[in-house]
Amino acid sequence: KTLFCKKDDHNKENLFNSINYDVAAKKRKKDLLNNKAKTQYFHQEKWIYVHKGSTKERHGYCTLGEAFNRLDFSSAILDSRRFNYVVRLLELIAKSQLTSLSGIAQKNYMNILEKVVQKVLEDQQNIRLIRELLQTLYTSLCTLVQRVGKSVLVGNINMWVHRMESILHWQQQLNNIQITRPAFKGTTLTDLPLCLQLNIMQRLSDGRDLVSLGQVAPDLQVLSEDRLLWKKLCQYHFTDRQIRKRLILSDKGQLDWKKMYFKLIRCYPRKEQYGDTLQLCRHCHILSWKGTDHPCTANNPETCSTSLSPQEFINLFRF
Question: What are the entry keywords (predicted)?
């Protein structure tokens, strides 16, 4: 009897160990999947075929989430020519397209956003741009989380609350950035001739950058108020008709181009310009980054490609 009890206890112990082993194995498998999902869902190809319906060769259609997963945005943010393009795309998705993404695409979105924030924290550039992106996303999530139960977000509500807490943490990190003056003593912007300083300022496409630059030094403050500078900025972003509708006179009876600019940006979208963009081949309907080879059957593939703005990219997937 004693031997039987010991044998029974031994079987129970083996059963218990077996259960623990299965649980541990399942947990390791789940952790592995989570770790894999934390990285972007990569495909070997750097392009995607955009199809909006079923054919004999293809079933279903291409979604925004699928394109977002396959076009390697995670690497694109490391390219200075593509960084602003990706950030603008993230902002547009945050405003209106977040719920159209699949669960994997939503996770990819947050992972890419985290990489964007870490890049900005390291190089201390584009801080205001990312602050605005995070605020846009947080505002959208506040609205979506309140509508929980209506299938507007994929995943558990606690997961999204945790993501919102991460956004607040990132915002705090950006607010705490202290930009240090370079240690080297070389030629600075204010050391250059006035004509060169103005030439550099004319290359800034955002009026807020001009205002910030003017706060660096008294000499730059004077240059940043140059009427011709703000006039060219208005003419670059807006049409003559738009400008005529928003005329503002200064106390001296002259057009106040600076005030007009900030009034115009509240009424009309600014002109967007990017160093590199996604492009769509009109011949084979393949979407890819510029300079990426894709299997096109056209005689001259270069002539078939059309550059897409971030908004045009999103419009491709509105059925």
Answer: Cytoplasm, Nucleus, Ubl conjugation pathway
Element spanning 66, H or E: helix 64-70
Paired tokens of 61: 């259609």
Sign of CA dihedral 238, 240, 243, 248: positive
Q: Read off the amino acid at residue 222.
A: V
Tokens, residue 190: 């204010």
Task: Quote the radius of gyration of the chain (alpha carbons, Å).
Answer: 27
Please write the tens of the pLDDT for every residue from 120-151. Answer: 999 988 999 999 999 999 999 988 887 655 55
By the 10 Å C-beta count (0-12 exposed, 13-18 middle, 19+ buried), 278 is classed as buried
Number of helices (H), then strands (E), belonging to the chain: the values are: 14, 4
Name the burial class of residue 293, with classes exposed (0-12), middle (13-18) and buried (19+) by CB atoms within 10 angstroms of its CB: exposed
**In 3-state terms, the chain is what percent helix, strand and coil (to 5)?**
60, 5, 35
CB 275 within 8 A of CB 80: yes
The label of the residue with tokens 């049409």 reads 239
Q: pTM of the entire structure? A: 0.76
pLDDT tens digit sequence for 187-244: 888 888 988 999 999 998 899 999 999 988 888 899 999 999 999 999 999 999 999 9
